Amino acid sequence: MTQIIDRLSGENATSPVASAKEPTGTPYAAPPQVTLDNIEHPAYMINHNFELVWINQHAQQRFFGGQLDLPQTSDARNLFRLLPVGSGEWGSLLHLHIGIAKSRLNPESFGKLCHGLDPVTYARLQSAYIETEAEPVRPVVESPVFLPGQKGTTAEEQLHTAYASYFREGIFIVLLPETNHANEMLNLLGRRDEVIRGLLRKRLPVLTNLAALVSDLQSSVKICSELPPEEYFELINEIWRALAPIFRKYKGTYGKHVGDGMVYFFFPQPDSDYLANALACAVEIRQEVQRLSKAWQIRKQWFNELFLNTGITEGQEWLGTYQSPTSVEFVVLGDTINQAARVSDFARHGSIWVTKSLIGKLPAEERTRVVYGVRRRAPEGREVFVPSSFSQVSTLLEQEGARMEKLRDIATLPITEIVEVKPPNPA
User: Fold this and answer.
1) How far is residue 385's CA from residue 401's CA, in Å, rounded to a whole number?
2) 192-202 and 183-190 helices cross at what angle (nearest 10)?
3) CATH superfamily of 207-421
4) What 3-state DSSP class applies to 72?
5) 1 pLDDT exceeds 80?
6) Which CATH superfamily is domain 2-14+34-204 in?
7) pTM of the entire structure?
8) What is the pLDDT of residue 7?
9) How many whole angstroms separate alpha carbon 363 and alpha carbon 365?
10) Within 13 Å and on the Cβ side, how many CA atoms surround 66?
11) How far is residue 153's CA from residue 174's CA, in Å, rounded to a whole number?
């Protein structure tokens, strides 16, 4: 990133070394540092669904005349819905965003991104996608754009340079007039950790669809009592290290959890189904924990097995952030996370249980890949697996002769066990 800044800044950068020829006694005056709070140009952040998650007052004024009240739902914050797509004046800015999208999304995924727009706007966006070249994938994209101005502004004043900086959490875009020096802004973009922390702190709460996955380590108290403290922490850290890449693979977002369990959220994606991602992720982490379990059995010569019991459900909840002086955490409000935690409490021996509502909302093609059902006891006592079926939690508990007071609040919830998620058919 430093090399990018140096190359773009060229010879205009000012430093104490560059000022060495100044008369002795002349103090070096560092230029004021640009921060998110004092950017004097349009700036905003979109997530990878191209939904607006933060916008400063300069962008609000330039794009929407200062009158934009952001919708509550994530779908309605789609930038292609908010910008005046039909106006030719905004063509270059529109093509910038489509170029960024094209570098990440195939035509089918881009079509899903535009789903729900009126037919004329949808057709115009599809045509623009075909005509636009994909922006190269790099840490900072630099592109000229033309912004409509108020009466009396010259063409030169309407010509801007867009700087798009990529983060795992989204894309930060700032628009600088062509007459402005970019050095200070590039220095800001070079401080990536500072920028993303600031953006996350300013992120606007949004009502969004999501899947919540909660996993807990079974018999963690027993395992903790049998291991020296340093080995127990080693085990827990090894589990986290092994599972983190799997959660990233399926685009899971970490959530706060007390104890040795874990919470991850899965949000709508333009290039994959978030519900299917949650299920496939759960199956893969179960396989990884089985591998770790065998390794620790060999290492410790014990008979303990590691089981990560998983509950998954879906819902529509408010997503926001909690902030401390040192960190920013994603937080989901509502009953979805509590329900997933209760289903996780029900699960045993590394099983994965999900709600009927989640299975019902899976796209038909994705549902055919999922093997699910409920194990029931026949009259003679043998266990029979009934595929593609559900059961209320209370019925399953009665079948096992169990009574769990803390599951009373989900007693009537219909759930099913995930046995397998088959790989997608090759195209």
Assistant:
1) 18
2) 80
3) Nucleotide cyclase, GGDEF domain (3.30.70.1230)
4) coil
5) no
6) PAS domain (3.30.450.20)
7) 0.79
8) 47
9) 6
10) 3
11) 20
